[in-house]
Amino acid sequence: MQTVKELLLKTEAFFKDLGLPRPRREAELLVGHVLGLERVQVYLEFDRPLQDDEVAGIRALVRRRANREPLVWLLGEVGFYSIDALLVHKDVLVPRPDSERLVDAALDWIPADAAPFVADVGAGTGAIGLALAQERPGLRLYAIDSSDAALANTKANVARLGFGDRVAVLKGDLLDPVPPNRPIDIVVSNPPYIRSADIADLEPEVSKWEPRLALDGGPDGLDVYRRLVPAAAARARQAVLVEIGFDQGDPVRRLFEQAGLVGVEVLPDLAGRDRVVRGRVVGG
Ligand SMILES: C[S@@+](CC[C@H](N)C(=O)[O-])C[C@H]1O[C@@H](n2cnc3c(N)ncnc32)[C@H](O)[C@@H]1O
To answer: What are phi and psi of 194, to 5 degrees?
Structure first.
């Protein structure tokens, strides 16, 4: 019978040969996940002999990871902002730490006791909108996506967080699913913004697995902003905030200004690259 330690070392060596960047950490996380153990507990159980079904479960995940499926899909959850364990389903974009900048930028404009109606366009797992809802108890959210896989994932997170009474999960294009008589104060969005031609050059976890609908921003990466920014500026009563790629600050700022938004700012992420554009509605 193999012990935890033996299988862990084998998995680490296999991941190293494949050139995965953090072979030890990934091995610990996958082994721990199947055994229901935290990473530190894996070490406390080093000499435990593994049952056949445990070995089979670990091998199945190791094979998927060897095929460069995103690690987070295999683990099923990730921490995002103040949400400890956000569920992340296969076929839904894995939330990135960079997107926490958009959450910060929005919270900065939402007082702690405010009760705004916020629309998160392209909600994916629901990460951005749900992090805002967690931080602002009065906030009501429309979580919108055009992908059924994303909507199922958002709904699972809404249920897990117990936010069912203040989140509407809606299917459709951009803001269309929010009925015209329903208020929207703030629009937030991390839309697809990668240039179509650049997608093939990204790491395999992204180019081979993550949904094209979540990535592809058209020939110059700006297709969705061109439709979303004017629509959001026309509907929102207070503000519009979007995540951008590092080289999209100037063109997206222009789209905000052309749409009549004021006080437009391009904000950097922690690495100093442009990451968020935000602007206010006149009088909002
Ligand atoms: C970059 S992902 C962002 C997901 C999530 N907000 C996050 O930050 O982790 C973009 C999301 O927008 C959705 N999407 C793409 N085009 C859309 C459209 N026209 N209307 C609504 N959602 C769209 C995709 O399905 C995907 O879930």
So the answer is: -85, 140
185 Cα–ligand 1 center, Å: 20
Q: pLDDT tens digits for 115-153?
A: 999 999 999 999 999 999 999 999 999 999 999 999 999
Instruction: Pick one of 3.20.80.10, 3.40.1190.10, 3.40.50.150, 3.40.50.20 as the CATH number of 88-280.
Output: 3.40.50.150
With the most atoms of ligand 1 within 8 angstroms of its CB, the residue from 83, 86, 94, 145 to mutate is 145
Locate tokens 């995940």: which residue? 61
Q: 39 pLDDT band (50/70/90 cuts)?
A: confident
Distance CA 167, CA 154 (A): 10
pTM above 0.85, yes or no: yes
User: Buried (b) or exposed (e) across 13-33, using 16+ Cβ within 10 A?
Assistant: ebbeeeebeebeebbbbbbbb
| Amino acid at site 266 | V
CA 155 to ligand 1 centroid distance, Å: 15
Q: How much is the pLDDT for 1? A: 86
pLDDT at 9: 97
Question: What pLDDT shows up at residue 97?
Answer: 96
